[in-house]
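Moderator note: this is an archived Q&A kept for reference. The question asked for a predicted structure of one protein chain; the sequence and the answer are reproduced below.
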Amino acid sequence: MFKSLLLKGRTMCVLILCTLSSLVVTAQTRITGKVIGSDDKQPVIGATVKIKGTNAGAVTDANGVFSLSATTSDVLVISFIGYQSKQVAITGASLGTITLEATNSNLNEVVVTGYTSQRKKDIAGAVAVVDLSAAKKIPASSTDQLLQGQAAGVTVITQGAPGAASSVFIRGISNFKNSQPLFVIDGVQSTSMSDLNPNDIESIQVLKDAGAAAIYGVSGGNGVVVITTKRGKAGKSVFTYDAFYGTQVPKGGNVYNAANPQEMSQLTYLAGDNTVGKAIYPGGAGTVPIYGYQGPGIAGVFPNATSTPLDLSSYHFDPSDPSVDFLIQKFNQTGTDWFHAIFKAAPIQYHTISGSGSSDKNNYYFSVGYLDQQGTEINTYQKRYEARVNTV
């Protein structure tokens, strides 16, 4: 009898625990809400809504609406790229409209795509906007150098020679012939932007996606670089002077790891046989003779200054009959650094004067520029005079 009552008591305890468990489960409520952005008051599509401290959550639909099961003691964490994450305490079944604060105002910049313009955040993957303030921190003699390292998916290879245009590739090399993008300067198509004064540029947009560049047809197949130059603005006339002066320095040291005369003599001595290498360098590896001579049936060297000197009057060169040539050559004991004999430190300077303003009838902008770039390779240079007038 006692065991029967004990079993019944255990059964009652289990039933009570199950009841309490079911009460906990049923305490969860279906929570709904809508997420919008503070910048445009439009629904945020694809925002992540999670219960804090768990992996349970939901994603907003095309109307910015979400729905998930949670308890009134839970806290929701709402996040989306370009907006600050926000924590919301659950106070009821409906949370109403939740506004996320934008974290990057650059997403609302208007960028030019063909004959129209769009917000940057709507086409962020297809268009790259170059930050000119950051790009101009590094002086450049060619405008296409401003693209280097400033736009994702854009590769710029500089030629090095003064005045040489750089090679620009968007999304890599797409074919074996011409992979250069199309350049559009104030609506005019061009094959280069290197001759444009960097100080005259207002904005640069790179159209990487085929859809964004579709307006230009086949010519935009390798991507499009859209450039807008500066124009006069309403207000007082403004005059500016911009200049920089610097020095271009070639690489120092033994750039190509070339052998010096002693190393070359050692290599020749070790690699040559008894009739070649050891005859040219009889003093052994690492020695460089003073003179060498070669004539009909005879060849040799004078390895040091105490050797019997040659009779220089016996030197004979006859282009019409090489068989009677007797040649004498003095060896270079120290060698010649040909790289630094050809490449030297070279100055570069760039000056620009510009003016802009407006009148009752039009806006105006003009600029004149002067570039003087000496090449690091001797006897190479570029001098360029520029003038630009823009009136609207």
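Archived answer notes: The CA atoms of residues 235 and 357 lie 6 Å apart.
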